[in-house]
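Hey, quick one: can you model this chain's 3D structure?
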Amino acid sequence: MKRFISILAIVCAACVSCTGRGEGASQVLKPRIVVMTDIGPAEVEPDDNESAVRLMAYADRFEIEGIITTIGWNCDPYPEEWAVYLKRVIDAYQIDVQNLMKRSLQDGFKSIDQENGKQELGYWPSADYIRSRAMMGSRRAGIGVIGPDNDSPGSELLIRLADEDDDRPIWLCSWGGANTFAQAVWRVKQERSEEELKKFLRKFRLYTITDQDMQYSMRMNRAYSSHQWLRRDYAQDLMLVWDESAWLNQNNLGKANWDKYAAQIQGKGAMGKVYPKFLWGVEGDTPSFLNVMPNGLNDPNDPTQIGWGGCHQFGISPDRETYAWTNWQQPLKGISNTYEHKFYPDEFNDFAARMQWADTGSGNHNPVAVVNGTQNLKPLQITGKPGQKLKFDASRSFDPDGDKLTFNWWFQEFPDETDYPAISNPSSGKISVTIPDSATGKTYHLICEIHDNGPFTLTAYRRIIIECSK
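Sure thing. Here's the predicted structure for all 470 residues.
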C-alpha cells in the first residue's frame, strides 16, 4: 500500500501538477524552444556540449522543435563536421532516457508522427525525434551574409514552425549567433506581405547569450552583427532578450563550483560521460533555456519577472543605438545578479538530481506547490487594496516522496521600488501580507519557494501577482 501511494503521488507530480487541477485546466503543453548552437570540440567549445547535456536532462520540460548547428564566436565559418558533437550527446540521451523515464513512470514513446505534434509537459521524447530536429543553420556570421545564398535547413525549419497551427510562442535560445533566424526573417520579408512578416516575428521570442554573430576578437563591432538589424528594424514586433548577466554568472559560478560538477555530473550515466571540463566557463549558454523553465517561478513572456535565466527590462541595448530587453545597466544588472546567485544552488541541485536519475533510474522528485487550493505553474492573480491584509496558504503543498517541506516567501525586487508589503511568518506554510498604504496603483510579485529535505533538497515555486487598486 505504501508503494502504491508513492507511485500515485509521483504520477500526480508528473502530470496533475502541470494541469492546474485546482483551477480546472487541462493537461499543460511544453514550451516550444529552438536552440542555435556552435557546439564543437571540447578544446574549442566545451560549454555548448555541457549545455546540450543539461538540455537533454530536461527533455521532458521542453518541446525541442529544433537544434540548429551554426556559427559562434570561435567558428566562422562553422565546420560541418562539428555537428558530430551534438550527435554524440543525442546518442548518450538515447541510453539515459530509459532511466530518465522512470522519473515519471513513462513506459514507452509515442510514434514519431505523434511526437511531431504537441507534446505534453512531462513527456520524454525519443532520441529519434531529437535527431529528426537536429540540422545545419547558417555557417557564416554577420549581416553581410544575409540574402539569397544564405538559406539553410535551419532557416527553412523556422519558417515552417511559425506557419504551424499552434498558439504557443517559439523561444529561440541562441547559444551562438542568431544568423539563422535573421536569414528566415529576410526570406519571409522577400516573399510575404508586411502584415505577414509582423505575424511571423510575433511568433518568436529570441534570447541571445550576449551577441555572437561575429568573431570574438571583433565582439564590440555591433554593426557587423545581424542581431543589430533585428533590434533596429523589428523591435516593435520581435521580443529580443539580450542577456549580459545570467550567462556570466553561470560561467563563473560553474568554475568556482567545478568540484561539484566533477563529482555529481561528469560520469553520471552516458550523458555524464560526454560532459567535458570547462575551458572558458561552465554552461554559459544554459540561461537561454533556464529562462523558459516551466517551474512556476516566472512567465518568460514577461522578461521583468525574475527566473533562473535572470530578469530584463526594455531599454537601450549595449550598442547604445538599438533597443531590446536587456540587463546590462544598473540597477537592474545588480538586481538580476543577486537573484542569479540566489538561485544557482537550486538550479545546480535540480540538474544533479536528474543526472542521478540518468545514472541509476532512481532519485528524488521535486515538491509540488499548492497555493490557496490551486496547483498550477501559472502566476496566481490577486487584487488587493492599500492597508489590506491578504492571506496565503501553501500548507497543502506536497512531496511525491513524502519528504518534509520548508517554506520561504519573498517579494521580487524591482528597480525604483522600495516599499514592499510586510510578510508575517515568511518561513511558514500559511502567511499574511499587509499591503502598504502607499500601494495605490502598484503591482507586487510574491514568490512562494518550497524545498524538500530529500537528496539535493529540490525546489518548487509559485508566483502570486498582487494588483493594488484604490
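One thing worth noting: The chain is about 30% helix and 20% strand.
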